[in-house]
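Input record (one chain):
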Amino acid sequence: MDDVRHVLVLPDRDAAEEAAEALAERYELDEEPQLVRDALAGEDDAEDAQWLLVIEDPHARLSAAELDDFAAEWDGWREEP
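The corresponding structure, as predicted from the sequence alone:
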């Protein structure tokens, strides 16, 4: 089985940090989610950055629908592979 990686896009760092903490509490993860700043193309201002929450799911235990709902709690979304 191939490893699965999920990416949640969140509007700001605070939302990403809160979501990472809640994700660890809600689901049993092998690794902590990784936070990555994703500056929008052509923008240097930190205000224009989105934050990515990268979740390694080697056993494919997390469903896309669950993660869609989870990300929506922080005004975010799950990136389609």
